[in-house]
Write a structure and sequence with these properties.
Blueprint (H helix, E strand, L loop, with lengths): L1 E6 L11 H4 L4 H11 L4 E6 L3 H11 L5 E5 L8 H9 L4 E5 L21 E4 L4 H12 L1
Parallel strand pairs: 1-2, 1-3, 3-4, 4-5
């Protein structure tokens, strides 16, 4: 299976920013662990702070890949354009969040993306990505 992981704005700072919320590991370090756990599957990683680049990546992989794991960061709560891109592609998308967004600020409680996604996983730290990958692999 070919699976694309996409991280949105500020997630390039994992391991550095707000460690009490996001932990002290970079995503690149965790991605190496995921590749070891999902041997036999092609995992790809992309990160951008720019909404249009995230949309372009969804368009690029959205008709050929078997799944997308998307942590759109703050765009989750604001981007109708990303929601439209998810709805427009054939590849199933799972929305993930490292923190439990429902235990945070009120504006984080609403996802603009969730209705277009196969499901949402939040609050399990970096393990949210593994849970999403397991769901995609299981079909």
């Amino acid at each position: 299976m070919k699976i694309q992981i996409i991280n949105g704005p500020n997630l390039n700072l994992l391991g550095v920013r707000e460690k009490s919320i996001y932990g002290d590991s970079s995503f690149e370090t965790y991605f190496a662990t995921l590749k070891e756990l999902f041997v036999g599957h092609e995992l790809y990683y992309f990160q951008s702070n720019k909404e249009g680049e995230i949309i372009d990546k969804l368009h690029e992989v959205g008709f050929e890949f078997d799944g997308v794991v998307l942590n759109a960061g703050a765009y989750t709560h604001t981007s109708i354009a990303i929601a439209d891109a998810i709805a427009a592609i054939n590849t199933p998308v799972i929305e993930v969040h490292i923190s439990n967004v429902h235990k945070r600020e009120e504006f984080r409680h609403k996802s603009m993306l969730a209705a277009s996604c196969r499901g949402v996983i939040a609050g399990f730290g970096m393990d949210s990505y593994r849970l999403a990958l397991e769901n995609i692999v299981a079909g």
